[in-house]
């Protein structure tokens, strides 16, 4: 059974690229374009890993991460935050809220795929 990845980003070009990349690697993919959609997808899609943009309107990635971590039934879900926010304080905040990894944009696809692979292999 394919591992499931939820991609959460409000930038269409990034979503399309990430979706293609993950599907090429054999992952089942669902999409969300904001925080509210992400939480709805968490309920129905039940991903193994979430690729979560930080800067989104209405509910940012930090808030989504916090809400995911508040739910014990979502505790095994891995979260990779993707952000143009590169300051140490921003990275520390994401990790403190429960992200398993924080990757700054622009990122290399090799780095991203290595992180995704490592996190998913650690959760089996």
Rounded average pLDDT: 94
CATH T-level fold name: Rossmann fold
* DSSP summary, beta strand count: 5
Q: Tell me the structural class.
A: alpha/beta
Categorize the overall geometry.
Answer: globular
CATH architecture assignment name: 3-Layer(aba) Sandwich
Q: Distance N terminus to C terminus? A: 12 Å
- The helix fraction, in percent, is 40-55%
Strand content: 15-25%
Q: What count of helical segments does DSSP give?
A: 5
List SSEs in N-to-C order.
EHEHEHEHEH
Number of domains: 1
Spatial strand order of the main sheet: 2-1-3-4-5
| CATH class type | Alpha Beta
Largest sheet: 5 strands, parallel
Low-pLDDT segments, ≥5 res: none
Q: Could you give me the name of the CATH homologous superfamily?
A: Response regulator
Radius of gyration: 13 Å
Protein name: Chemotaxis protein CheY
Keywords: DNA-binding, Phosphoprotein, Transcription, Transcription regulation, Two-component regulatory system
Pfam families: Response_reg
GO molecular function: DNA binding
Please, could you describe this protein's structure?
- With 124 residues, the protein is an alpha/beta fold.
- It contains 5 helices and 5 strands.
- It has helices spanning 12-24, 35-45, 61-70, 88-96, 109-122, and strands spanning 4-8, 28-32, 49-53, 78-83, 101-104.
- A 5-stranded parallel beta sheet has the order 2-1-3-4-5, sandwiched between helices.
- Helix 1 (12-24) links the parallel strand 1 and strand 2 (28-32).
- The protein is globular and about 35 Å long.
- The mean pLDDT is 94.
